[in-house]
Amino acid sequence: MDLICPIGLRCASEISSLLSPPSPLQVQDYYHNLLSARACTGITVKQDANFGKGLYVDRDFKEGELILKDPMFVGIQHSLNKIDCLVCSFCFRFIGSIELQIGRRLYMQQLRANESDGCDVGNSSKHSHEMDSSDEEESTQECISGSSKTKVPLPDGVVESLMNSQLVLPYSKKFSLPPVVPCPGRCGEAYYCSMSCAEADWESSHSLLCTGESSARREALLKFIKHANETNDIFLLAAKVISSTLLRYRKLKSVSIEEQVKHDTSSFLNHNNLSILLEAWRPISMGHKRRWWDCIALPDDVDSSDDASFRLQIKALALESLQLLKTAIFDKECEPLFSLEIYGHIIGMFELNNLDLVVASPVEDYFLYIDDLTYPNKEEAEKITQPILDALGEEYSIHCEGTAFFPLQSCLNHSCYPNAKAFKRDEDKDGQATIIAQRSICKGEEITISYVDEDLPFEERQASLADYGFRCRCPKCIEEEP
Ligand SMILES: [Zn+2]
Ligand SMILES: [Zn+2]
Ligand SMILES: [Zn+2]
C-alpha cells in the first residue's frame, strides 16, 4: 500500500525547491535580521557543516544572567488545558481576573462532571457555552482521574458571581490581569490580552482559521479541528504554519504587484510566484529537517518489528488531517503547501523541536500571597478563600501548557553539561522562551541546554537522546562512556 498525494506529483519541482536547504548566506541573513528585530545583543547564530546551527555568545555572561527571550514563531495551548486556563491566544498571558480564572475553571469542571456522569464515555452531548471546547477525550480523562472526589463544591451562585465579577476576592487587585478581548471574528474560541494581540494573531494566521459564524470555512474548519483534537493537536500547529505562510505569501505578492504597477514592468508579471512563495516559506525553511513519519520515535508499546507499519499509519493519519485542512483553506496559488511532503516536514519540525510552552498561573501566586498574610488579615481573607480552595481541590492552580516553535531556542544544541537552561523568572508572564546562563559563559562559547534530565545515568541519557536522532558526544558523555 502506498499513499498517493496528487499535489506531490503535480508540484514535485516546487516542493523540492521549498525543501532544499537554505544557503549559508540565507541562514546568516535570516538570523541576523531576527536577532536585530528582537534587539538581542551578545548572540550570534553560526552554521557548522557537521552539527548544523548553533548559538554562540560574543560577550561574557554571568551565572543567572538572562541570555535571550525568544517569542514563539507559532504556538498552541493544549486543548485540555483550555478548560483550566484562560490565556491570550497570541502571547499566552493569563487574562481576565483571578476571579474569572477560578470561576471559569470551576464552571468547566462542573460541566465535565455532568457530562461524564456514570463514565458514559461514548456520549458527547454538545454544550453551547461559547468557551466550551470539550470533547469525548476530555470526559474520558476526567473519569480516569476521578479527581473530583476530594473537592467540596461551593454554594449555588458563587461560581457565577466569580465569573461575572460580582464577587471580588480579598487582595485580588494586587494580581490584576489584562482584560479579555474576544476574537474580532467572534469564534468564541480565541481570546486576547489586547487589541494589538488580537490584530497580530488575525494577521498572522487566525483570519484563515477562525471558526466565527460569518466564516465560509467554518464547517470544514470545525471538522479539521475535531480530527486534530481527537488524534494529535500537533496538526493545529501545522495548520497555523500553513496559514501564516499563505498570508505572508499574499502580502508579499500584493507588494510585488504594487511595485510592478509603479514601474510598469508588466512583462515581469506571473513569472515569480514561486520565488514569492519561497520568500514566505523562509522562516520554516530554517527549521524543518525530516518528515514526521520518518523521525517520530517508536512508542514503547509498539514492537520494533512493526516499525514500518507504524510509520505508514502515522503517514495515513497526516494525510487524513491534511485533506480536512485542504477542504477548509486551500489556495491554488500556494498548492505545494498542501502536499503531504510539506505537511510531513512541518510536523517533523515540531516533532524534533517540540518545545513545551509553559506559563505559570497567577492563581497560584494569589493563594500563596493569602497564605503569607499575618493575623488578623489572613484569617479574615481565608473566610472567603478557603471554601474556594476546597472547591478547586488539590491542583488549585494549573499552568498554561502547550507546544510552540521558538526560532532561536530551536538552534540551541544539547549538552549533558549545559551552560544554559530554559527558565521562567517571576517577571516572565507570557509564552516567550527565556534562556538563562546556568554558569558563567565566556565570549565565543556555544550556548547549550540539556534536552533530557542531565542527572540521569549515561545509558539512560543516550537512550532518551536517541529519540532526537543523535548520540551525544559531549565532554561528560565522553568521560562516562564505558
Ligand atoms: Zn496577548
Ligand atoms: Zn476567531
Ligand atoms: Zn552528553
Structural summary, described in words:
Helix 10 packs across helix 14 and helix 15 runs antiparallel to helix 16. Strand 5 and strand 6 form a beta hairpin. The protein has helices spanning 6-10, 12-19, 24-37, 81-84, 98-115, 136-145, 158-163, 195-209, 218-230, 234-263, 273-285, 292-295, 307-329, 340-352, 362-372, 377-392, 458-466, 475-480; strands at 43-48, 52-57, 66-70, 74-77, 181-182, 191-192, 355-359, 400-405, 413-414, 420-422, 433-437, 448-449. The strands form five sheets. Strands 3-11-10 form a three-stranded antiparallel beta sheet, with no helix packed on it. The chain has a three-stranded antiparallel beta sheet with strand order 4-8-7. Strands 1-2 form a two-stranded antiparallel ribbon. The chain has three domains: 1-20 and 196-358, no CATH class; 38-71 and 406-482, Beta-clip-like (Beta Complex); 97-176 and 362-397, no CATH class. It has 482 residues and is mainly alpha-helical. The site of one zinc ion has 5 residues, from helix 18.
